[in-house]
Specification:
- It is a single chain.
- This protein has 371 residues and is mainly beta.
- It has three domains: 151 residues, Jelly Rolls (Sandwich), CATH 2.60.120.10; 163 residues, Sandwich (Jelly Rolls), CATH 2.60.120.10; 30 residues.
- The protein contains six helices and 25 strands.
- The strands form five sheets. Strands 2, 12, 13, 15, 16, 17, 19, 22 and 24 form a nine-stranded mixed beta sheet that branches. Strands 1, 3, 4, 5, 6, 9, 11 and 14 form an eight-stranded mixed beta sheet that branches. A three-stranded antiparallel beta sheet has the order 8-7-10, with no helix packed on it.
Amino acid sequence: MADTPEAKFLFDPYLDWTAREGLPVVADFGVDLNKVETRPWARMDAAGAFVHLKGRGDFVGIFVVDIAPGGKTAPQKHLFEEVVYVIDGHGSTTIETGDGRTHSFEWQRGSVFALPLNARYQHFNGSGKTTARLSATHNLPMVMNLFHNEDFIFNNPFAFPEREGRESYFSGEGEFIPRTPGRHMWETNFIPDLSRFELVKWEKRGAGGSNIMFVLADGTMHAHCSEMPVGTYKKAHRHGADFHVSCINGTGYSLLWYEEDDDFVRVDWDHGVVFAPPDGMYHQHFNTGADPARYLAIALGGLRYPMTAEKRAVFMGMDVNVRDGGAQIEYEDQNPRIHGLYLEALARSGVPSGMGGFIDETDYAQGAGRS
């Protein structure tokens, strides 16, 4: 009897693809992208690595790409979306749209940009001395597992002119789309310096914080930026997997826990650290530094195109109390240990608390709430 091929069973085409690409794979709860080891990546003609966070879910992953001094990547074109954050270095990207025109922009550490779907592009390192490192958060896991055909994804001629946006979107300009606090949007393709981008106050998320939601290249990849003033922290909330949270400026930590947990998972962060809260895991972000702390969150499905009923519910209830059917824990309802731990962290940093207007700290000054 002739040998028969093994039946296909429980395949993961995306993980199979990453194995064939031959790059390092870093899998962890949180990862410092500054320290990820890369190796030559034939597809990009650069060095690369894959980062698989524990809370990435089924739709999203990260590429880390190193461009050598004076180097460039091979031209790319693909049927999945990317939101690129510049971890280090400076350079430029050239995008060729479906009408044959080219659009170029210069980026630096802290820049964010999206690549219009299936448009041809190429990255260039602007320094002859230092390596440029990019982090690309993408939805290839969803696309590869849906179509499981590399040629369809990487060699598809179909053009999406509606995804290209205005000419000015490639130069860092954009359009402010007013909604309500926490839902205001900025539509563009390129943010030259996220650390300086003007945010809008969002008091319901806690302690004088601010935020903006992005619509990038009319894509289904969501991005938003939030900032916490010195000596403050945000209210806890939870949602489904796949929100990849990256520190832009400042220092601090995040606590994560499930409702039934007795203790917290802690992730300390500064620039370049990324983590993803797993599905349904409460999480809360704390600024312990002497400067405002700012972060970028990237996921699949946003305010314009939520993609799933779950993601639609997230954006409707992200600043609504859990008692009212939302996803947020108010300061008065949080575990008292949380504030005690924060005051201890501030004491170690030599930073005064800015939370007195939001939480009665009298008992904490006497040592309560720290056990």
